[in-house]
Each structure stands twice: as structure tokens, then as C-alpha cells.
Amino acid sequence: MPVRIYDIAKKLGLENKEVLSKAKGLGISAAKVASSSLDKITAEYLEGELLKEHPEIASPTPPPPPPPAPVPQEPIKVVTAPPEPPPAPPEPAPLSQPPADSPPADAVEAVVQPQEQNSVSPATIPSAPVAEPEEPKGPKLGEKVGFIQLPARPRTEERGRGREREKDKDKDRKPDRPAAARPVSAKAHEPPAKPAAPKVSLPADAPVITMKAPIVVRELAEQLKQKPFKLIGDIMGMGVFANVNQAIEEAVAARVCAIYGFKFELEKRERGGGVVHAPVRKVELDVDDRPEDLQPRPPVVTIMGHVDHGKTTLLDRIRKANVAAGEAGGITQHIGAYTIAFPHPERPQDLQQITFLDTPGHEAFSAMRARGANVTDIVVLVVAANDGVMPQTLEALNHAKAAEAEIMVAVNKCDHPNANPLRVRQQLQEHGLVCEEWGGTTLFVDVSGLTGKGVDKLLEAILLQAEIMELKANPNRKAVGNVIESGVEAGGPTATVLVRKGTLRVGDAVICGSHWGKVRALINEEGKRLKEAPPSVAVRVLGLDGAPDAGAEFNVVESEKIARDLAADRALKEKAEQAAELKPRVTLENLFATIQETQSKVLKVVVKADTQGSVEAIVDALKKIPTDKVALEVIHHAVGAISEYDVLLASASKAVVLGFHTRLDSKAAEVAKREGVQVKLYAIIYELVDEVRDAMAGLLDPILREVVLGAAEVRQIFALSKGGNVAGCAVTQGRVARGKVRVVRRKNVIFEGVTLSLRRFQDEVNEVRSGMECGIRIDGFDQFQPGDVIECYSVEKVAQKL
Predict the structure, then answer these.
(1) What is the crossing angle of helices 140-147 and 16-25, to 10°?
(2) Which of 215, 409, 432, 598 ranks highest by number of CB atoms within 10 Å?
């Protein structure tokens, strides 16, 4: 928080100009006027310097330890106190070799001695005997000497004289006198001066701090267990200005550590020391659990069935929520995962959890349904009692069988006037599902999603079936599971995951395909934040660096570094595989096939959708369009809004941008208009697939088909005076018109061309109908013979179909 100059003056009871003058003297460039603002660290440093000159001011917090350099300035005020004018020579008098009877000598020695202690502990700083507190209250002359900055030239001369006196002192100094007692001169532009290679005396058993270069102020403060601003004050006292994120030299770090009683050593790497020769430890993402560690877990149930057979309505009744309200056309577009609690049929007080996966019913989402069946324990096959078994019902049944999941049948819409539950049982019996009433093992439950009839019975049957299956998992291990759905929202990428084993917690490092991250939040279906998610619980995860593929497995690893490295390796591997698929090597054997492939018709598209599951479903549906005449190339597919990058990519590749349940950025719209890129937005997936199919067919060259309009028989040949012959004909079939004609002689075509003229008597006409006579001249042919047939035809273009 910034502090103003006048706030410091008011706090210390000083005049604004005195504080401002001191700040300028310390080289603080921000101090220009009394209303200038200083940062907190600089303000504390300025207050500390002011308190040194005014010890009579009581401060609520002790000032930071003064640096060694300004210490000799304290006795200066004692020496210059006599009423003699303040010339330059008397000021450095205490620094020279003092005579035996000189009073200031005691003051100098008193200040130097605490400096020795100061290098060990800052607690001895107040013991330095500065002048009597009442003495600065004397004449105005004494006060001015205390805070007025001396000119640069006298200080330069003082530095030179100080070096000479330092040499004289070295001659007379006793061997046991510590080097820290040497006085340090100040720079010309600021009072705190950088020490000239000082040596700090510390006990032999002083603790040692070891750091590697660079020596960052923040890291040094952590080692010393001090706040960074205190170290910055110490460093500023040495004439070095650095913030918390900057590095300092080894000598400066050693002096700072000495202030707090520590030795400093710089750790240096030996040659080759940075190379890790140890074998890389293989990361185990999943391990087998011991049987004694397994505990019961809730069942995971997948709702499957034909489109519009009431799956979402049935789940709405279970969840007491209307999922289908926001869906286009009433069709579920995305997979959802929901966990509910329901009383056990035999123990009503015991609430059991059930996790439901709601899969969409459209055929284009067959891959998502297969993915849902692979992570499920029980599949509830929903069949409408009024419609019976449909093609997608059988497809869902095959997925459930392939996943080796337990299958239960919910005969929905049993309250419909045309309901026939018996027919549903008969149809499914033909496919291997025999109900228990008929001696089979499959449980059939008649339900109604609208009225709720039979829903409780269905849930009780699920709990009983789960109890028989003895579903277990180890919750006390790193979590492993699958991504049910993913997308990009305002807060970043999100993924709905189902934990299969272990417990997923906030703060865990997660690797999922080529994406990684640290779990920032776990959110359940009600929007509540959770701290952890045990097995068989579905939650929304925030913190990944991207939207992973739906169905991908996620694993919790030891650290973010491991997750990041694994994700980078997987991303490189995926890029290499994609490059190998997109750019096959050209050999002499496949050269002609490669050339023919490059000349074939290709429709390039960019697919963007709101969720990863939708993206995969659209790409899968497009690739399944049955045709070998036109190639479909998805050059890019991702989650999120259509961006400028997508449009530019489509422009460079001559592609079309397809958006599903997403929007077009304003800037991207401008680029699309400028580049002439077509952007199509859809809300229903089969509309998107149908239009793409039509567009692929439009790329095909039209089929040319000849349509015979009529025929005329040559009866007589007339020679023209200017050269050439005219065929006198009688139209025997259809009509003869100006245009394309062919001459047929004895069922063989001997010439094809166009009519040069068509006359009826002396008039030029456009066509002559059957039963009439006419004269025909053909451009480039006049070798007519009686009995020749002249056929008139047209060529029509017929669009191809896939």
C-alpha cells in the first residue's frame, strides 16, 4: 500500500520539507513533493533513517537494522556540535587517528564496537551510544548538520582521506581486532554505501545457509525465516537496490546472512554435476489392489435405448430435474452423470448411492454409448411399450453385451393407450433376454417416466442386483477413472469424470491423455463443491490445461512435474502418429495411386462444438458417410467457440467451418466475411450430417446424359450453287431442332456435329415436328445418302449422388 511523504512527516512529528529533503538525500527518486507516494518498503527504510537522526521520537516498531556504512555518521553530530561553522574539515575528524585526549575518539570507538555485534545479531543496535538526546535540541546549527546532505566533492575527498586513514589503522590494528569494525565510506549520491570487500566475524559453530546461484532475495528471506522487506532494507543499506524477485551477489548475501547470525556458502556445481546419470524411474499409473483393501462401492448404471423412448424423462423422474428442457428438439445431446441416494429395500434407514450415466439416443453418438457401457456395472435398457424394440435398441443391447454388464429392462410408457409390455418381452426374448416370469434371468420392470409408476421398484431392483454383484473398490489409493464428458467454459476447461477406484481429492496432480493439471475444484451435479470424490462418484473437475477426450482414462500421479512430463510425451507421440497418417511416404509402387488420390475430390471441414463428446460424435458420423467418390478431411476439431484462428485455417485450407451448439466470435465473423469462408451453425446433429453429405455430393462432377429429341430420314439431296449439299428430310420421330445432331447410316454413327441451318420451305426455323419435311445442313458434313437418319439430341447434366 503506497505511503505519502506528508503521512510519514505527520507520523514522526517532523516537517514535510525535512522528510522530503532526507528522502532526496537518500536518492529516492519518487520523493518530489510532499504528496509523493512511496512503496511500503521504501517508506519503512526512510522512517528508519529519520529515526536515527531523531532518537527522541518514540516509534511503535523498531527501525530496521542500520547498515554498517552510515554508522560513522552518528558521532559526526557530536563532533560538529560546537558553535563553529560547519566546514568540511572538522567532520571527518573522528575518522582520523585521534589523539589520546580527544573526546570524540570514545564516540567513534563506541559506534564501531556495536558494528561488530551488529554483524552477529541486530538486537545490539540500540546499544550504540549516539549523542545525548537533548543535544540536537540546542542551536539550529546542530539540527542542520544532522540531516543536510553534504556536497558531492567533500564526500569524494572524504573517501580519499578515509582510505589513507584506513591504511594507517591497518598498521596499528591489533591482530584480534575484527575486520567488521572498519568504517565504510558512503557514495557521493546516497548515504548507504556498498562495502569494500568486508569480512564478517562469526562464531565457528554459526549455522550455515547454502544456496545455488542465482541468489534471489525472496529465496534468501525464506532461508533466513525473515520477511523479504526486512532483507531489502538491509540490502539498501549496503548501497544495493533489488526487489524480492531479483538476484544479489554472493558478497551481499554473505553480509545479510551475517546480520542474522548465519554463514553463507554458495553451492557450486562440479563439471558434469548437472547431468543425471541415474536411471529414469518408471511411473506406475495403476496397480492391482489387495483383496483386503477393497470396500463396497455404489453401482454405476447406464440408461440406454432408442431415441424418444423416454430415457431422459425416466431419469428426470429419478433425479427430480428436467434435463431435456434445454435440449434442441427434445433430443439429449451430451452424456451426463448423476449420483442419487435411495433407501435400501430391505434396510429403509440405509441410504444407498446410485450413479447414473445418461447417454444420448441418436445413432451418431454410438461411440459415446459404447464408452458409457465400458465404465458401467448395470445397463438399464429402456424400451417404449407402445413402439417395441427398435434398431437402436438392439445396438445398445450389443454394446451392453460387449461390456459384459448386467442388463435390466425398463418397459417405459406403460401408461400409454397403445402400450403392449408383453410384446416387448417377446421381442427381446428373440435376442437372448428372457424375463424372470418366463424362467429367465433378466429382470423386466414396467415403469412410467411421466407418472412415476414403477420407478421405486426399478431403483430397488438396481440396489439388490448391485448387492448380489458385490461391487468393491479400494478408496485408499490414488484415483483412477474415466472422462465421461469434457468442454471449455468461462472458467476454463472442465471434465466430468467417473472415479473407478481410489479417491480423487482437491489438489491432486492428474494426467489424462495428453492433458494434465492440478485439481482446483470438484463440483457435483448440484453445483456444490466437494473436497474429495470416492469410487463410483461422478464429479466435474476444474484445473486441467485442456479438454480431454471423452472416455479417456485419468490417473492421479505424485507431482505436477510428473503429470506435465507424461502429458508432453503423449502429445509428441500423438503428433507423430497424426503426421504419419496424414503424410504417407511416396514410393515407386504407390506413386500413381498417390497422384490419383491428390486429384480426387476432397471436402475439408473444421468442426467446433461445445463439448468433446459432441466433437468426437460429429467427426465419427462424418467419417461414416458411405462413399468412395469424395474424401472428407477434418483438418481441425476442438471444443469452444469458433475463433479467428479457425476461420483463417479454413481459408488457407479451402475448408468449411461447422459449429455445433457453439457460437461465432465477432472478430471471427469479420474474418470469415473478408476471406469468403462459409461458417455453418447447427443445433441438431443429423441436420449437420445431411448437409455435409449433400455438400460432398455437390463436389462430384455431374453425369452427362444424352436425350434424343427426334429423328429425320434423308429422302433427297440438293446441291447448292455455292457449294455443299442440303439433305431433304422427313421428320419421323419427335422433333428436330437446331443443335447437336449425328448421322446414322446402317445403324452406324458416321458423323457428329451441329446443325448449320434448318429450313422449312424458304424459312429458317428453330425446330420441325414429326410428320413434316425440312431441309438440313450440317456443319462440316455434306456426304448425305438417301436413307441416312439424322438424330437430334441434347446433353443434360445430372447431379451425382453418394
Answers:
(1) 40
(2) 409
pLDDT per position as a tens digit, 187-228: 334 644 444 444 556 787 888 888 888 888 888 988 898 888
pLDDT in tens, 627-672: 777 888 888 888 888 988 889 888 888 889 999 999 998 889 998 9
CB 291: neighbour CB atoms within 10 A? Answer: 8
* Cross-strand partners of 679: 657
Instruction: Tell me: do 43 and 174 sit in the same domain.
Output: yes
Helix ranges, 352-483 (H): 366-374, 391-402, 421-429, 455-469
Do 157 and 252 have their domain in common?
A: no
The answer to whether residues 148 and 142 touch, using CB atoms and an 8 Å cutoff, is no
Contact 748, 742 (CB under 8 A): no
Is it true that the peptide bond before 66 is cis, omega within 30 degrees of 0? no
**What does the block give as the cell for 237?**
543499506
Question: What distance in Å separates the CA atoms of residue 774 and residue 712, rounded to the nearest whole number?
Answer: 9
- Residue corresponding to grid cell 467451418: 657
Range of the domain at 413: 304-471
Buried b / exposed e along 629-661 (16+ C-beta atoms within 10 A):
ebebebbbbbbbebbeebbebbbebebbbbbbb
Q: Are 751 and 782 within one domain?
A: yes
The Cα 656–Cα 606 span in angstroms is 6
Helix runs in 599-665, H state only: 612-623, 644-653
Closest CA to 675 of 702, 642, 652, 701: 652
Closest CA to 396 of 354, 431, 438, 422: 431
Residue 297 lies in a domain: no
Half-sphere exposure (Cβ direction) of 665: Cα atoms closer than 13 Å? 13
Distance CA 655, CA 635 (A): 8
64: cell is 530496521
- Domain check: are 690 and 764 in the same one? no
3-class DSSP assignment, residue 167 = helix
Nearest CA to 33 out of 8, 5, 14, 61 is that of 5
Q: Do the Cβ atoms of 732 and 788 come closer than 8 Å? A: no
Residue 479 neighbours by CB distance under 10 Å: 23
Quote the CA–CA distance of 577 and 635 in Å, as a whole number.
15
* SS3 label, residue 460: helix
CATH code, 751: 2.40.30.10
Q: Can you read off the three cell numbers belonging to residue 738?
A: 437446331
Based on the domain organization, do 640 and 687 belong to the same domain? Answer: yes
Q: How many CB atoms lie within 10 A of CB 792?
A: 25
Backbone angles phi, psi at 423, to 5 degrees: -65, -35
Whole-angstrom distance, CA of residue 646 vs CA of residue 135: 78
Residue 691 one-letter amino acid: E
Do 672 and 716 sit in the same domain of this protein? no
Q: Which long-range contacts (CB under 8 A, 24 or more apart) does 669-675 make?
A: 671/644, 671/647, 672/647, 675/647, 675/648, 675/651
449-502 pLDDT, tens digit each: 888 888 889 999 999 999 989 999 999 999 999 888 888 887 788 898 999 999
**Burial of 245 by CB count in 10 Å (0-12 exposed, 13-18 middle, 19+ buried)?**
exposed
C-beta of residue 614 within 8 angstroms of C-beta of residue 659: no
- Please say whether the beta carbons of 77 and 136 come within 8 A: yes
Number of other CB atoms surrounding residue 486 within 10 Å = 29
Give the CATH number of the domain where residue 423 resides: 3.40.50.300
Give the pLDDT confidence score for residue 52 in this predicted structure: 83
State whether 62 and 182 are in the same domain.
Answer: yes
Q: Are 405 and 453 in contact (CB under 8 A)?
A: no
Residue 317's nearest CA partner among 416, 410, 455 is 455
- Give the type of residue at 561: K
Structural domain count, the chain:
6
Name the residue among 543, 461, 548 with its Cα closest to residue 509.
543
Asked if 443 and 457 touch (Cβ cutoff 8 Å), the reply is no
Whether residue 663 is contained in a domain is answered as yes
Residues 324 and 226 in one domain: no
